[in-house]
Design brief:
This protein is an alpha/beta fold and 364 residues long. The strands form four sheets. It has a seven-stranded mixed beta sheet, sandwiched between helices. It has a four-stranded parallel beta sheet with strand order 9-10-8-13, with helices on both faces. Helix 4 links the parallel strand 6 and strand 7. Helix 1 packs parallel to helix 9, helix 5 packs across helix 6 and helix 7 crosses helix 8. The longest helix has 22 residues. The protein is elongated, with a radius of gyration of 22 Å. The relative contact order is 0.17. Bound molecules: 6-O-phosphono-beta-D-fructofuranose. 6-O-phosphono-beta-D-fructofuranose binds next to loops.
């Protein structure tokens, strides 16, 4: 058996833990393991990797000591989706073509029997397509956004929440000293998991998430209410995909591989709150900081559980599935069901109840 491992889309803490554990579990079974560089680019465009090659033989030595490192030793990309490959026309315009059959042919030529694809909804959708055209694929759910259906958690999320919480903690002290309002923008795409969990953990005063459209006059009331009680500072956490009651989101352009590139909501919310409250409001965008650095023990452990479960799944003959955390087990769910729906924060979850009990405003 010869398997390949690929990491695609935005990186997330815990990727190396999955690569290491899947490699070790496969080597123990006497299988060969190939790592593909930068998503599928290493296999599709080997000439672009003249020094090291587009694929790497993953050995025990290669993966030694990487489990605690952030990022991915294989590299990642959200460009060059093989199922919608960008092609420039003679008139200069761009279209896309589906190169999945060609890519599956490349896997065959390289003697690769199966693929473990570690990614979010984009990479898993590519995995689904490759599976449809004949490759044995097993997916591993990765994203700091925690927005994948069918799994209780994705790895990367726990670390992102930890980093966001620490960032908010640090802003608390400076906000208190200067009697300022801070608006902290965090990632999460169209799901509010990171904003909600870090905001509640750090004790923010308002949390704006995509699932609850906000009205800033309500947030201003919370800030001014605090002021009346002698608390002259406030922390507002806003998810990058939060939207106002009139449906407005902050989009800064089109992102490669994603419909929209979100960002800038923090500055918008800050300037409107400044007008509504008359207070000094500063913005902090935590952005890609949430994806970097050392994975938490929970994400490393999840990486080990997912990586080894992917290998066991291949051994059991699974294909076209994703490993999923369904405590106390890691199960196998059809890839198609994992990508068909986004997992957003349920409005009746107890974390929202807890936040409301503490008087945290959601701007509603
Ligand atoms: O999907 C993870 C994520 O971090 C989102 O929260 C964010 O919108 C996106 O990636 C940004 O990715 P990039 O800047 O790499 O395009």
């Amino acid at each position: 058996m010869r398997i390949a491992i690929s990491t695609g889309g935005g990186d997330a803490p815990g990727l190396n833990s999955v690569i290491r554990s899947a490699t070790l579990a496969a080597l123990r079974r006497g299988w060969d393991v190939i790592g593909i560089r930068d998503g599928f680019n290493g296999l599709m465009f080997p000439d672009e990797y003249p020094e090291s090659g587009g694929t790497i033989t993953l050995t025990r030595e290669y993966v030694r000591g990487i489990g605690h490192l952030g990022g991915t030793v294989l590299g990642s990309t959200n460009r060059g989706n093989p199922t919608e490959f960008p092609v420039q026309q003679a008139d200069g315009s761009w279209t896309t073509e589906d190169r999945s059959e060609e890519l599956v042919g490349m896997f065959r030529e390289a003697g690769i029997d199966a693929l473990i694809t570690i990614g979010g909804d984009g990479s898993l959708a590519i995995g689904q397509k490759l599976s449809d055209v004949g490759l044995r694929v097993i997916g591993v759910p990765k994203t700091i956004d925690n927005d994948l259906a069918m799994t209780d958690a994705t790895f990367g999320f726990d670390t992102a929440v930890d980093v966001a919480t620490e960032g908010i903690d640090r802003l608390f002290t400076t906000a208190t000293s200067h009697s300022r309002v801070f608006v902290v923008e965090v990632m999460g795409r169209y799901a509010g998991w990171i904003a909600l969990n870090s905001g509640v953990a750090a004790g923010a005063h308002a949390i704006l998430i995509p699932e609850i459209p906000y009205d800033l006059t309500r947030v201003a009331e919370t800030i001014l209410g605090r002021e009346a009680r002698g608390a002259r500072f406030a922390i507002v956490v806003v998810a990058e995909g939060a939207r106002a009651v009139d449906g407005r989101r902050s989009v800064i352009g089109k992102s490669v591989g994603q419909a929209e590139r979100l960002g800038g909501i923090g500055a918008q919310v800050a300037s409107e709150l400044e007008e509504l409250t008359g207070k000094e409001v500063r913005t902090m965008v935590l952005g890609h900081l949430l994806r970097g650095g050392t994975p938490s023990s929970l994400d490393r452990l999840l990486g080990v559980r997912f990586g080894t479960a992917a290998v066991r799944g291949l051994e059991l003959g699974h294909r076209g599935v994703m490993v999923a955390l369904q405590p106390p087990h890691v199960s196998y769910v059809p890839l198609v069901s994992a990508i068909s729906k986004m997992r957003v924060v349920p409005l009746d979850c107890d974390t929202i109840d807890a936040a409301r009990d503490l008087g945290i405003s959601f701007g509603d």
